[in-house]
Design brief:
This protein is mainly α. Helices cover about 70% and strands about 0% of the residues. The protein contains ten helices and no strands. α4 packs parallel to α8. The radius of gyration is 25 Å and the shape is globular. The N terminus is likely disordered.
């Protein structure tokens, strides 16, 4: 750091790099893992939800245990535990277990209010579950110095709510490919358009919060806990900004998680490559007929 100051270069401690790399990796990997589970047969969804429930419970315990700890490790733990709890909401919703009172397609009408009411009905149980979980996390960590996990969950909640509203109002990229077949009715509530008035507001607010987190993480008087916590939150907010831009930019977003779809494709190709070989092998009757023709 002293060399950086003497050379007039901005210092970027290794602590920041580790936190940024960790946040990006766990975001990418956890998203891919959820998408992989959603591509499994629907008969496996129940087991996925049960497993996610156990992991979420451990996440809540981890948030409570580390809430009074202000080490860098506790910041990473709080961040990870919040993601584990959030994963339950993603899995339980996309598998169709916790959705809403309405599980059918939108009935078109002339007014916007009925469309909004129907869309809300399709998500209401999911949104209430998130609200209850957020309240539980705030209660578990209330008055404690380690609020990284609480802030992480709230960021994920507000970011996803913003994304849902933007998709409802209309964006070019609706990310329909991420919905499993049993949730395809939700597509009827989406709207495809070049832009909506909420999008620039969402991106601007997220960008400002990102900068505030980065600025706090680079404070020379910040402790190791504060550096780790603000770096993790700042990276998460940056990913929120990127995810919002994915909604309007013509980018192959699904390619980010081709690692799990490629594995499925390889298995399919392997099984299909074995079948033609078995199909082209001549039967005993064909061999006998061929022998008769040869000798006659």
């Amino acid at each position: 750091r002293a060399v950086c100051r003497q050379l007039g270069k901005p210092e970027f401690p290794l602590d920041h790099v580790i936190a940024i790399a960790f946040a990006v990796f766990i975001w990418w990997f956890s998203t891919g893992a959820i998408l992989y589970l959603l591509r499994m047969p629907s008969e496996t969804y129940g087991l996925s939800v049960v497993t996610a429930s156990a992991v979420a419970f451990l996440g809540l315990v981890g948030l409570w245990v580390t809430s009074d700890d202000t080490t860098a490790a506790s910041a990473f733990c709080g961040f990870t535990c919040a993601l584990a709890v959030w994963a339950w909401h993603e899995i339980s919703f996309l598998t169709g277990y916790v959705t809403g009172v309405r599980v059918t397609r939108y009935v078109p009408g002339d007014d916007e209010l009925p469309r909004f009411i129907q869309a809300t009905q399709a998500l209401i149980y999911h949104e209430l579950a998130i609200l209850v979980t957020a309240a539980a996390i705030v209660w578990l960590t209330w008055g404690q110095p380690n609020q990284v996990g609480t802030a992480t969950f709230i960021i994920l909640w507000l970011a996803r709510l913003s994304a849902k509203l933007n998709i409802y109002l209309g964006v070019p990229n609706l990310t329909e490919e991420f919905l499993p077949p049993r949730m395809s009715y939700l597509k009827s509530y989406f709207r495809s358009r070049s832009m909506n008035l909420l999008f620039p507001i969402s991106v601007s607010i997220a960008t400002i919060v990102t900068w505030l987190c980065i600025d706090a993480a680079r404070d020379p008087n910040a402790s190791a806990f504060q550096v780790a916590g603000h770096s993790l939150l700042g990276t998460l907010m940056f990913l929120v900004v990127i995810e919002h831009w994915f909604l309007v930019l013509p980018l192959p977003v699904a390619a980010l998680w081709n690692w799990q779809s490629n594995a499925e494709s390889s298995a399919t190709l392997q099984s299909s490559s074995d079948q033609p070989l078995a199909a082209t092998m001549p039967s005993n009757d064909q061999l006998q007929m061929l022998a008769r023709r040869t000798y006659h």
